[in-house]
Amino acid sequence: MCTNVKVIKKEVSTFLLINFGLIAFISIFMFISTTKPYSADLVGSFGGLFMYIPAFSAIVVLKKISNYSFPPSVDKFFNVFAIATLVRIFVSILQVFFIGNITISSIIDMAISCYLICVLFKDKFDFEILNLSLNKNFKKVLFVVLLFSIISIVRSIPAFLSVEDNSINIIGGIFTILTSLLANIFFGFTLFFGEEFGWRYFLQPRLQKLYGKRCGVIILGLIWGIWHLPLCMTLYSPKTPIYCIVFHLAFCTTLGVFLGYAYMKSENLWAPILIHLVNNSISIISNSGSYESEFTLQTLLVGILINAIFFLPFLFTKEYKKADETASLDI
Q1: Cα dist. 178→35, 173, 265, 274 in Å?
Q2: What is 191-222 written as a DSSP string?
């Protein structure tokens, strides 16, 4: 990563312009899809498409704006992901008006995920430049993922206890989470890589370089939270979108503190990717297999308080206290 402040500011502003510009464009068709008879599937598919955009934006900045150089295998990886993103956008728009189902999008997600995972393992040493080698600090990656899993299970106990047959719900939930994790590593990798490469690998070190480790990660959390606005209005909580937006601003900021800690501790992008995957799996299970939830003022405030209690203390770990020069990982 370049250490010149002017260059970093240009990279950040260009990333945000591409990212939010594409999200605004895609959201037009996502809102249109809510009027269709098959709206639930279509909106969910657009939710998956959203997850491609941060990495796509970062790749455009790295390759076309800042002209960083990478090994041929990494360049190929980037090209495949970028092309898949553009194809996915095109197909998602067609689905709204002509196709009527999300089969093609699902196939694209699974096929590209399997291909990219194979490339990662085949040329694993080339991807150390992206902090995408599982061999790097594997014990630290395992530690932060297990730590997050324990925190998430504790946070989710009230949701599990709200179901009448608690034992079946907890056992079944854990089994479903484990199977979901395994499936998504191979068939949903593009989605979680799509977010974490953009947010953690690209944007986090740059914001931390500009504003310091703590302020940088909090600013990132707020950006990540507002990025969810169209999803709150159409997918997550169309009945209570304002509460949903406020919740995501708070949740992404607090969770972002932990993800920032995990990434800095492990220096491995697999850590936030796996944590993000665990978080989404547990959230869906806790919500009875649905993305949609309805907020009340009480659930909003309680949710914010719980997340703040569990995640904000990580701001005081040694990873956030180290000199700011270590916040960026040079390419």
Answers
A1: 35, 9, 24, 12
A2: HHHHHHIIIIIIIHHHHHHHH-HHHHHHHHHH
Chain CA centroid to CA 217, Å: 14
pLDDT digit string (tens) for 18-75? 999 999 999 999 999 999 988 989 999 999 999 999 999 999 999 988 889 999 999 9
- The candidate with the shortest Cα–Cα distance to 279, out of 181, 166, 161, 142, is 181
Contact call for residues 268 and 214 (beta carbons, < 8 A): no
C-alpha 311/C-alpha 326 separation (Å) is 22
pLDDT at 201: 97
Please state the pTM of the whole predicted model.
0.91
Number of H helices, E strands in the chain: 15, 0
User: Reduced to 3 states, what is the DSSP secondary structure of residue 26?
Assistant: helix
Neighbour-count burial of 223, counting CB atoms closer than 10 A to its CB (0-12 exposed, 13-18 middle, 19+ buried):
buried
